[in-house]
Amino acid sequence: MQNQQQQHQQHQHPQMMHNGPPGGYYDGQRPPHLGLMMSPQVAAHQMPPMRMNAAIGPVAPNIRYVWADNLEQEFALLRDLVDTYNYVLVSTEFAGVMGRCMGAFRSTSDFHYQTVRVNADLMNLIQMGITLTDANGNRPNNNILWQFNFRYNLEEEMFASDAMDNLLKTGLNPLKHQADGIDPVGFASLLIDSGLVLMPNVHWITYHAGMDLGFLIALLTNDLLPMEQEAWTEWCHLYFPNVYDLKYLYSLIRPQSAQVTGKSSIEGLADELGIARLNHMYQVGNQCHLTSLCFMELKKQLPSIAKTNGVVWGFGEIQPLQAEAPGVAARGVVHYGRAGI
């Protein structure tokens, strides 16, 4: 048992590499349920009867804090909701930017990808916020969203000291993350089974999507990112068939005199759009709340967002190549990965 646990290491270890996602297959249908059941007691306590809310305004969200001990029951809840609320708004938290790329690059897009790759290989996610809405911005009852807290050991992880200082000021508790944080491999397995990824009717929305997608692909494949952007693009299209980048959407409507890079954060975008922010909006759960508000405002101001699907700021359009994606056979995604997943 101890040997199996030692094999469940995170993607940061270069000597442990594979070419496939952790488990399961995909044949165009919803991934089979892995047996996560919500007890009647849990369902009664956690899931009031569903009703459609009015579009969300600047009101305090109901954040559900997820640790290792309640991870499965929260994913069971997400799985029940995603059929109705199939817009996934996400924010990730990692400890700054550790790697800066230098040298000659084939393109600006290649430079951006190599920067993402280096940092996703060096670091791991600390937190991830998720909220669900329908196409009109309605959320599940009680305006809920989720903040996932990953296992994280300051003595073992790499981080930018200034970024970590800022996280500590917002209330990050390293000792709790070390003791009670979520195992990334277990999270990836549940995410694949949840119906939130791989599905053509699910839409992912984030701000400055390149870095988020980099860390998410590293998490889902439990591996270092591929050297070439094209291979990473295939993974993105496989797991996230529909992606909208708020930074790109805003670039389509901003005044000509404005610089989209001037406030490179979801908080800055909210300010530009005139969206009121609540106090303590710098935690990742609240950031994905802002993401949902900004997305609905941008949808109002743009005649259509259909053509922006898959366009990531700094990367251009993420579309699959003609060849099959890595690890995809006739029946779908094949697991070539580590033992025990």
TrEMBL record:
Its EC number is 3.1.13.4. It is found in: Cytoplasm; Nucleus. Keywords: Cytoplasm, Exonuclease, Hydrolase, Metal-binding, Nuclease, Nucleus, RNA-binding, Transcription, Transcription regulation. It catalyses: Exonucleolytic cleavage of poly(A) to 5'-AMP. One of its GO terms (molecular function) is metal ion binding. Residues 1-24 are annotated as: Disordered. InterPro entries: CNOT7/CNOT8/Pop2, RNase_CAF1, RNaseH-like_sf, RNaseH_sf. Residues 1-19 have a biased composition (Low complexity). GO terms for cellular component: CCR4-NOT core complex; nucleus; P-body. The keyword Oxidoreductase does not apply. GO terms for biological process: nuclear-transcribed mRNA poly(A) tail shortening; positive regulation of transcription elongation by RNA polymerase II; transcription elongation by RNA polymerase II. The keyword Manganese does not apply. Belongs to the CAF1 family. This is poly(A)-specific ribonuclease. It comes from Babjeviella inositovora NRRL Y-12698.
